[in-house]
Each structure stands twice: as structure tokens, then as C-alpha cells.
Design brief:
Length: 316
């Protein structure tokens, strides 16, 4: 695994001494050097590192200013910084630690102490990175439908609530598509639930394929799916919904589903603060449109206009 260190000190001799010491123990694969805080910060932005060794007294930008620059960047705040101080600089050590340094090393430094402190903070960083990745994975799992890989209903409701609030404050367009697989119970009854799961996953793929990267697709429950389309008018959302309908209709399956003619029905609604007072109302409008699509023969798109007038789009 590649690891790297940034050494910031205005003394070439000190930097070379630190590098020779660390190289003896094979702790790093890359070594970066800088002679002051400004150069160090620029190096850091272009070459991410695992740990920083930084002198406090330097020209232009010293160690304290460098620490404050790190604090201003959330993506750099967790980087371990070991400050290099004089033997009797008690107050400066304390100030450095208070400003975000992880530890200090006194100069002239003892090679074994330097290596020991660096190892400790590398281990801490590794544990922190693993914990961060685990938390990110848990968050992703808690927001994801395990079968289709789309977002789940809980995440959908949170995302929709945020979009409705944003639309209410700033205006613009916001549309919702609700999709239901036609005669899905017959798929389960005739082919079994394992094949039914394959159908659900196929529909999820086709749905996601027809959406933009910033649209939100979710499994609402059972064979129902929902897509949130920010910055999309009702007309645009109806066009997308019909594209989804056709994409599903043209989906091919392997045996034993090879002869399955799969279709979906879709309902579309557009948010209007004047006519759609709540998230639940917004969903109900799309659901009512979906119900009409089912009642009119399935495999079609229906929509609810914000003015309260229901107009068929004529799909069959």
C-alpha cells in the first residue's frame, strides 16, 4: 500500500536527516519536501499525503499559519501533523497542539523517537480511515434497496422532502414519476419469486438508464418505483416517463422469461406550491395518475396537471 509524507522545514539539512531516518524503516513510498508553509500547502493540494512533519519557525508562512490553513479545509482537517519544535519551547508546543497539531517532536530529534511517533500516528490515521469507510458503507446500505440497488423508500422520502422545500423557497420545476409493473403478480405466480426478483432488477436498470445523474430513483415498495426529477417541467417528465415505458417494453429476458412481454404503467405529477401543499399530496397526485393509467389499459403514461385538470397524454 502506497504511503506518503510531507516534510516542511526551511533547513535542507533537517529535511534530509528526517528522510534518511524514515527511509531506514521503509515507512513511506513517497517523500515530499517544502521549505515553508506556503509551498507545503501547495504541495498538499496537488499531492495528497498520509502525514505531515512541519517546523514552526519558517519564513513567509510559519507552522502556526500552516495549521490555520489546514483547519480552513474540511478535506484536510483530519491529516496528522507532527510539529518540530526546540527542546525548551513549551509554550509553542502547547500553542501548536491547540491549533490542531497531533503531536510534536523536539529538535534535535532522536531518530527512534521520531519513527515511533510517526508509526503511532500512521496507525491512528489508518484506523480513522477504516472507520470512516465503514460509516460511509453503513450509510449507503441504510439508504439502498438491497435487491435493486436503487435508493429505498426511507431515503426517497427524505430526498423528496428536501426537494419540495427547495422548490418552495426558490421556485423552478420539480416533477415526480411513479411506476408500477403491470400484472407483476402473474410473473411471481407463473415463474416464481426468484424470477420475479430478476424482473424487478431489470426494471430498476431501465429506470436508472433513462434518468439523469442528479435524478433520484427509488424502489417505493413491492413492484412500485419512484423517480424524482428536479428542474423538470411536467411536459419534460411525461416525455421521460414514456421513454422509460418504452425501454421496459423492449427489454429482453433469458429463459424461462424469454416469452415475457413486460410492461409498466406510470403516473406523473409536477409540484406547485399553490396547488400541492405537502409531500404526501405530491405523491398522491402521481399515484392517482398511475391508477388512471392502470384503469385505461396499462402500459401507458398519465399525468396530473398542477392546475387540477387531468389530461391524458394519449399513450397506449
Amino acid at each position: 500500500m502506497s504511503t506518503s509524507v510531507l516534510i516542511i522545514d526551511d533547513s535542507v539539512t533537517v529535511r534530509e536527516q528526517i528522510i534518511r531516518t524514515l527511509e531506514t524503516f521503509n515507512l513511506f513510498t513517497r517523500y515530499y519536501e517544502a521549505e515553508d508553509g506556503l509551498e507545503g500547502f501547495k504541495k498538499l493540494l496537488s499531492s495528497p499525503v498520509d502525514i505531515i512533519l512541519c517546523d514552526l519557525e519558517m519564513p513567509r508562512i510559519d507552522g502556526f499559519k500552516f495549521l490555520s490553513m489546514l483547519k480552513s479545509r474540511p478535506d484536510l482537517q483530519d491529516l496528522p501533523v507532527l510539529i518540530l519544535t526546540g527542546m525548551n519551547d513549551r509554550e509553542r508546543k502547547i500553542k501548536g497542539l491547540e491549533q490542531g497539531a497531533s503531536d510534536y517532536i523536539t529538535k534535535p530529534f532522536d531518530p527512534e523517537e521520531l519513527v515511533a511517533r510517526v508509526k503511532v500516528h500512521l496507525k491512528i490515521k489508518k484506523l480513522q480511515d477504516e472507520l470512516k469507510r465503514s460509516n460511509e458503507l453503513l450509510l449507503e446500505l441504510s439508504n439502498t434497496d438491497h435487491l435493486t440497488g436503487l435508493f429505498n423508500r426511507r431515503y426517497l422520502m427524505e430526498a423528496l422532502d428536501k426537494e419540495v422545500q427547495r422548490n418552495t423557497r426558490k421556485g423552478g420545476n420539480l416533477s415526480l414519476i411513479m411506476l408500477d409493473i403491470d400484472l407483476f403478480k402473474q410473473v411471481n405466480d407463473n415463474f416464481g419469486h426468484l424470477q420475479g426478483d430478476i424482473v424487478l432488477k431489470k426494471v430498476a436498470v431501465q429506470l436508472q438508464k433513462e434518468l439523469r445523474s442528479y435524478d433520484c430513483a427509488a424502489r417505493y415498495g413491492g413492484e412500485e418505483f419512484v423517480a424524482i426529477l428536479p428542474d423538470s417541467s411536467l411536459k419534460e417528465a411525461v416525455f421521460v416517463a414514456d421513454r422509460i415505458r418504452m425501454s421496459v417494453q423492449n427489454t429482453l429476458f433469458n429463459e424461462p422469461l424469454a416469452k415475457l412481454n413486460l410492461t409498466v404503467s406510470l403516473g406523473v405529477s409536477s409540484f406547485s406550491p399553490e396547488h400541492t401543499s405537502t409531500v404526501d399530496r405530491f405523491i398522491k397526485e402521481a399515484d392517482d395518475a398511475l391508477y388512471r393509467a392502470k384503469a385505461k389499459g396499462r402500459n401507458r403514461v398519465e399525468f396530473h396537471s398542477p392546475e387540477g385538470v387531468n389530461i391524458s397524454d394519449g399513450n397506449s
